[in-house]
Amino acid sequence: MVDENYQNTGIGRKALQLALNEIKQTDGLEEIEICYNPNNPVVKDFYGSFGFVEVGIDPEGEDVLAIIKI
After folding, report:
1. Exposure of 64 by Cβ count < 10 A (0-12 exposed, 13-18 middle, 19+ buried)?
2. Residues paired with 54 in a beta bridge
3. Distance (Å, whole) CA 45 – CA 33
4. What is the mean pLDDT of residues 7-35?
5. Which residues, listed in sequence order, are joined to residue 69 by a DSSP beta bridge?
6. By percentage, how much of the chain surpasses pLDDT 90?
7. Consecutive H or E run containing 48
8. Residue 69 has pLDDT above 90, yes or no
9. Mean pLDDT lowest among 13-17, 18-22, 39-43
10. Is pLDDT of 60 > 90?
11. If you write DSSP's letter for every residue of 8-66 in order, what string do you get?
12. What is the edge-to-edge ordering of all strands in the sheet holding 64-69?
């Protein structure tokens, strides 16, 4: 999460890209999963720009589940 005073500066995009690059180094990794509030269209587009695809609702039935296949 990026403080509202620093949003729209590219910090979140850079941080997520660094995190994904690191995660993808994991041996045997098949997919990366994230969850987010379905009422937040900004985050949907943000994650979608990295290749995350919505696949349904998380097991708790509250948030959208999205994945990237590796």
Report:
1. buried
2. 66
3. 15
4. 95
5. 31
6. 80
7. helix 41-48
8. yes
9. 39-43
10. no
11. TSSHHHHHHHHHHHHHTTSTT--EEEEEE-TT-HHHHHHHHTTT-EEEEE-TTSSSEEE
12. 31-36, 64-69, 53-57
Q: Are strands 64-69 and 53-57 parallel, antiparallel or unpaired?
A: antiparallel
Euclidean distance between the first and the last CA atom of the chain, given in angstroms as a whole number: 24
pLDDT tier at 41, thresholds 50, 70, 90: confident
Q: At what angle do helices 11-23 and 41-48 cross, to 10 degrees?
A: 50
For the entire predicted model, the pTM comes to: 0.84
Residue given tokens 């941080």 in the structure block: 15
| Interatomic CA distance for residues 25 and 33, integer angstroms | 15
